Amino acid sequence: MIITLFLFSYYIISTMRTYLYDDEKLNVRTTSNVVASFAVDYMNKETGALDKERFTAFINGIGVDAQMRVMVLSRDVTVLYDSQNNRNLLGTAQVRPSVMSAINGIDGFKQYENGNIVTLDASAPIFNSDGEVIGVVNIVYVPDSAIKFMDAIFGEMFFLIIVILLLVGIIIFVIANLVSKRIVDFTSKITSMGDDGILDEKLDISGHDEISRLGEAFNLMSEKVVNLEKQRVQFVSDASHELKTPLSSIKLMADSIIQTPDINVEYVREFMIDMNNEVDRLNRIVNKLLYITKMDVRNEEDDKHFELISLNDIVQGIEKNLQPLAKKADITLVFSTPGEIFLMANKDVLWQGIYNIVDNAIKYTDTDGYVLVAMQQTDGKVIIEVRDNGVGISEEERGKIFERFYRVDKARSRETGGTGLGLSIALAAVKYHNGQIEVESEEGKGSTFKIILPDVVPLREEEAQNE
Ligand code: ADP
Question: Are the beta carbons of 55 and 44 closer than 8 angstroms?
Answer without folding.
Answer: no
